[in-house]
Prior knowledge:
Blueprint: E1 5-11, H1 21-29, H2 33-45, H3 48-53, H4 56-68, H5 73-86, H6 94-105, E2 109-117, H7 118-127, E3 131-140, E4 143-149, H8 156-165, E5 171-177, E6 191-194
Parallel strand pairs: 1-2, 1-5, 2-3, 5-6
Antiparallel strand pairs: 3-4
Amino acid sequence: MSTKQSLYVFDVDGTITRDDSFLLLVKFVCPNVLRRYMIWLRASAVLPSAILKGDYSKIKYRVLSLLFKNKRSGELDKTGLDFYNAVLSTNIRSKANDYLINLSRESGSIVFLSASCEFWLKPLADAYNATLISSKLEFKEGFFTGRLSGDNCKGEEKKRRLQAMFPADKYIFICFGNSASDRKLEAISEAYHHDFFV
């Protein structure tokens, strides 16, 4: 009889970070307040139905398109690393940092599961030796098209991607989250912790 491996699964934004990494990224790449306001205005003006429905992810990806469309993947990777070093690395909750460091020392298997995008979360995942499952941008011939590749990694999609990569017959999930959509992980978790690091 084989033993299942324990997998520690963490939502990123608001769970292990104090703030939403996307908002921090926008501020980092666009420090001018007026320009930032104009980008938000342009993004929300073309998507009024998204605002009415409370679907802010469409606005989020519209902003990413306005900021980064036609940028090379290597350029975005560098932006992500610079952002991690300057901003994101200092935004980790201290309790989460201690917990993740202890897990790493004990050779615990760590997964970061996020609706935020790979290019700015990969340096964070690398810092904790974690597997990253996140939303991905679409690239053609090395350039960002302005669209997502696949679905936004949120709610049910988080569950689907996690189980596709780590089958439930081989893994036990210990999940950590902070939002209503993260609570969907509770159904597949051996243990689910909400706002654990707050």
